[in-house]
Amino acid sequence: MAIYVILALDVLNGISSLFLLCLGLAIIFGMMKIINLAHGEFIMLGAYATVISANAGVNIWIAMLVVAPVFVGIVGLVIERCLIRFLYGRLVDSMLATWGLSLLIIGIITTIYGNTQQGVPTPLGGFSIGSYQSSYYTLFLALMAAVMMAIVYGVMRFTRFGLVARATMQNPAMAATLGVNPARVYMSTFALGAAVTGLAGGLLAPVSGITPGMGGAYVAKAFMTVVGGGAAILSGTMSAASLFGSVNQVAAYFTTPVYGEVIVFTTAIVLIRLLPQGISGRFFKGNL
Amino acid sequence: MTLSRRRFLQRSAIATSTLIAAPAVFRSGALAAENPITVGSLHDQSGPIGTSGTPMVYALQLAVDEINAGGGLLGRPLKVIHYDTQSNIQMYSQYAQQLAVKDKVDVVHGGITSASREAIRPTFDRFKVLYFYNTLYEGGVCDRNTFCTGTTPAQTVEKLVPSAIKKSGKKAYIIAADYNYGQITAKWMTKYMKDNGGEILSTDFFPLDVTNFGSTISKIQAAKPDLILSALVGGNHTAFYRQWTAAGMKGKIPIASTTFGLVNEPSTLDAAESDAVIGAYGYFEELTTPASKSFVEKIKKAHPDTPYISELAACTYEGVMLWAEGVKKAGSIDRMKVIEALESGLVFDGPSGKVSLDKPTHHTVRNAFLAEVKDRKWSVLETYTDAKPADTASVCDLVKNPNDVKQYIINL
Q1: DSSP helix/strand/coil, B367
Q2: Which of residues 242 through 281 in chain B touch A, CB cutoff 8 A?
Q3: ipTM for the assembly
């Protein structure tokens, strides 16, 4: 019995970490149609910001929840001003430019901090269910995923900024006619997406192996989830993250980790074949 | 002057051949003036394997500097020609050609991953350049032109498994990286577990980009092993040790590893995550013998920012020194004469202790050490003297088959 509770926690962990990893990408890709191949490096920057500041004596919670998103948000802002703003509407060019950007970021971090492991200890301990152990951190990640979902929903649905942002994404020319400055909206949306990604990096820092090249392990799954989710940022990402996260964990538990990966990617291929517009293109049309 | 077509062709032919010959003439003139013995070095100083390669380059340079300080070899100084292979197999192939054909070096030390070794070994066979591979690996290389000075599983896993069984129990769960090193090492772990009366509950392999180990940790708990044997590799896999600790499993089931701590895991992971992991290698920086202390001190003095000085660096140093002994004994730099001298049972006392070359396998008989992580450092528990490369010896006999040039897969 206890093993099923633990397995359910694993599934919850898989879903919430995947959701956190993808949310920033969904904002940038889903809303702005910029393929940000440097997404993995934004995660890495968030993790580094957390580790470096925590090891310098900053409280671990502040390092994760404040330093990481603020730092990566500022980096995102600078990148948008210097690079991305020239690339709106140029899908292929934006891929090439952000890929170059990802190599640049890896290079800079390697030069500064070296090509070695970094780490912070995991806050919160473990707890036991029957004879099994799990960690409170798993629950904390799930909580954070729920909080982030609520915040993004609230901002996009109920604030003036959210309304303007959604209008601009839908029809920039019309929004501009009505007095909105699209350039400014894009800028702040990109910075927001980067900050959310940085937060994910910070939250995963205590349970990941942190190296300059760590982003590579996340970027493929993040894209797969966002594309599988379709146009709706929240409902799409959440449903795709739930599907892939649980398939991965359950498959890895009942078969081997190798097949776990294979089954996830197979699921993604079948999903895109059946629902070319993603899950939300079919089931949550018009939702956020 | 009128130029006939024939005369024009003649003259341009002469001019061309002079131009082509000129560098060779100048070059041999320059060599005659200084005439150093050249040592080629192919190590990764950048890219994912850069952290492993950097101390190896430092160790090689230290060995060469020491030999030069003692007057060089055969009255000639040594000169290192080093290329950073950037963790890129293509670079290995390219620079190996360059060392063999353009630089015409007298010996090459280098190669870190097994893939890189197999990319360059045939080049050195073809161009008859003596080659030293100084990294621990899965064993089985059988090639008269190649000397492998690092440890093989028979030298380390054989010690690690029984002591782990003694410490914890007979039921083990193997987790390993999903490529040739992990697969082969898992086989060795299984063999030594069975030889020691143990039992393998399950063996799981992980692609190198797996980052979430939640379901594995649950699976391990459900299997209830006494012991975990790990051959996980790379930055992403370090997440296992973190998530294991986060789940509160640390200290409940002990971990023994053939890969943990080879780079710098003990110093970068938190003490809570790395304490009590046990490992076995051919050398640890923390060894307190005078030779080891002075070796570490010299490297750290020259390069204060050096990453952990592991078996990789110690074997590189010893590899260069063994080669130098061979040259001294042969009294020549001729490749065959040096190989014959190296096969005569040469011994060198290095930072890891006494190292001797084994004639039939071209591997080394060397000390192996068992250690446990304590407070972010290795604490050496036991020393096994004269560990033999029994795995390679079971398939390779260069005395009987001197023309072998392959890597045998050792069937268990």
Answers
A1: strand
A2: 242-243, 245-249, 252, 263-265, 268-270, 272-273
A3: 0.81
